[in-house]
Amino acid sequence: MKQWFALSALLLLSACDVHQEAKTPMTHPVYYFEIPVMDMDRAVGFYEKLLGVKLERQTVDGYDMALFPFKEGTAGATGALAKGDVYVPSKTGPIIYFHVDDVKATVDKALKMGSKQLYPIKDIGEGGLVAEVEDSEGNRLALNQPKG
Questions:
Q1: What is the Cα–Cα distance from 97 to 103, expressed in whole angstroms?
Q2: Number of C-alpha atoms within 13 angstroms, CB side, residue 111?
Q3: pLDDT single digits (tens) 56-69
Q4: Full set of structural domains in the chain with CATH
């Protein structure tokens, strides 16, 4: 895992040089995200149950983190739940979309776990189906069921 964080730091530092010409086109510009939480145990339980994933708990730079699965060489971004003084849950910040196989079933599961639906299920054409719910910490969480 230390290699992953070292690679993350290296990539972030190299991305800071805005004058450097890109050597390869960026296909997925989002690399990593952090979702603020107040109660890590509650948040881990919510995301593991809702998304059917196992999060890895760690302390990183003094902050309590729970990392989403990451597989080297695959498309897409990964991230973590993060707890600490600089992490404040919100419905007004960036919206992160999670891929789900069945958006209706996932929304129903979230509602059974006490979530509120913030945006109804909508068909957005080629982009598939989307919806938004509130997570266990008060963050806006978007769900996407791609076409196909």
A1: 11
A2: 12
A3: 999 999 999 999 99
A4: 28-145 (3.10.180.10)
